[in-house]
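Check out a protein:
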Amino acid sequence: MYDTFTDFFIDEKVDPPQDTVILMCKSASSLESKVTYNWTLNGKSVQAGLRFKINDSSLVVNVTETIRGFFSCVGSNPLIHTSSEYYFLETNCTNLWGNETKEAVEVLQGNSVKFSLKESTEKMRAVEWHFKNSQKQLAVAMLGTSGLVNSAYTNRMEIDVNKGSLTILGVQMRDAGTFTASIRSCKKRWQENIKLDVKGKKLIFWLPSKSINSLSS
């Protein structure tokens, strides 16, 4: 039987004596399978060498030098090919939680909406967007370098690589809810929450003039 990669995700383990961080691909499924694993960093394939050691479903990261970016694990077997959500790792930094902001936005169904961040991009290094209602990751960006949208939303969402803003195209009623942006610098981490209210379009029916006359008579 082949694994369906239920709840496919990345877990982290720190190994201080060896100056390494181990990222592990995990699945909640108990099915036995032969799985091939590949790793990406900021959308590019990870190659084994001095910085990285690949051991099946694990990636050993050498943290004696600065590593910064979003890792993803790609698992495949003859039946399925899937990727984990992007996992942010930044070595030689201390991420302390800072402020948290909240705001509300209203949009008409079918229109597009753009969520802009309040913090200056000069302080930012990375941003990660989630939809709180479904607990799903939507998009991530290493500011000024690269932006990645989850494959399930590539046709509906865009992320600004320079400013970290998120745009939703053709908003639907199911998009109503809270969107969160986790923003990081080397010393601080903070969060912006945006509650989206989607208004349905009002339907207007036009009756032919003959029908109006017949109704009035």
The helical segments are 209-216. The chain has a mean pLDDT of 83. The two ends are 72 Å apart (CA to CA).
